[in-house]
Amino acid sequence: MWAPLRVRLAFTSHRLVRDRTVLRSYGHTSTESLTPNVARLPSTVDVGTRFEEDTLRCLSRYGIDLRRVGGADDKGVDLRGRWRLPKEGGVDPALSSPGHHGGFLEFPIIVQCKKERTKLGPKYFRELEGTLARESPNTIALLASSEGFSTKAVDLLFASRVPLALAVINSDRICVRLALNRALQELVPGLMVYKNQSNELTVWYRNKSLTSI
After folding, report:
1. Which sequence spans correspond to the domains of the chain?
2. End-to-end C-alpha distance for the chain, whole angstroms
3. Where are the alpha helices (DSSP H) in 38-106?
4. For every one of its 213 residues, what pLDDT tens digit does the chain have, with 9 covering 90 and above?
5. Residue 105: Cβ-neighbour burial (10 angstroms; 0-12, 13-18, 19+)
6. Are 169 and 62 in contact (CB under 8 A)?
7. C-beta separation of 149 from 178 below 8 A
8. For the chain, where are the E strands, in sequence order?
9. For residue 185, is it left (φ>0), alpha (ψ between -120 and 50) or beta?
10. CA distance 148 to 74
11. Which region holds residue 148: left if phi is over 0, alpha if psi is between -120 and 50, else beta?
12. Rounded CA gap, 152 and 160, in Å?
């Protein structure tokens, strides 16, 4: 049998008062405060930005001076700057057309950074070639990956007729691979990448080390 309306309302009011009292006894003033605090996970943008910063720092060890330019109007470029080489290296200015600053030759360079879960395929280099076509002559383009590159992607890099490079930046923020294609080595003769006895990457130009210690 249903209780009279007045009795039901009284019972409901009593229950609400009792529930509020219980909440206060636990130091709560609303049910919202009962929701556990969940640590905020980094967003895709946060992860991408961090990888761009890691890439910038890693490449700076090899004479590459970069700044972040990623945004709505980045035109497919995340980092932009200059690759600084000792002027006495012997590059013909008429051929390379770089800037001259403080005893260095400076080649324009653009970088795309890809923080993916798998190795990058050849489509990323095709996109980079398209981006490079909109840049000034003799600009170098580099593709940085956190997980490496597929065999087909590497084949496309070395077959390309425009100056391209790839870099692999691991989770320890270390550049574990840096490769230059033939077009880049023809643009900058004498630019080479080696690994030392400690298995660390070193970059040399005309027998001069570009790797900072």
Report:
1. 5-34, 44-209
2. 87
3. 44-60, 93-96
4. 555 555 454 545 555 445 554 445 444 444 444 455 555 666 777 888 999 999 999 999 999 999 999 666 677 899 999 999 987 644 444 444 455 556 788 999 999 999 999 999 999 999 999 999 999 999 999 999 999 999 999 999 999 999 999 999 999 999 999 999 999 999 999 999 999 888 899 999 998 899 874
5. buried
6. no
7. no
8. 64-68, 79-86, 99-101, 104-114, 140-145, 164-169, 175-180, 191-195, 201-205, 208-209
9. alpha
10. 23
11. left
12. 12
Between CA 6 and CA 113 the distance in angstroms is 68
d(CA 198, CA 211): 14
d(CA 154, CA 139): 20
The structural architecture, per CATH, of the domain 44-209 is 3-Layer(aba) Sandwich (3.40)
* Partners of 49 in the β-ladder: none
Burial pattern 86-103, b for ≥16 Cβ within 10 A else e, equals bbebebeeeebebeeeee
CA distances from 144 to 72, 77, 119, 170, 179 (A): 20, 11, 11, 10, 11
C-alpha–C-alpha distance, residues 53 and 42, integer Å:
15
Residue type, 15: R
The structure tokens 């006895």 sit at: 197
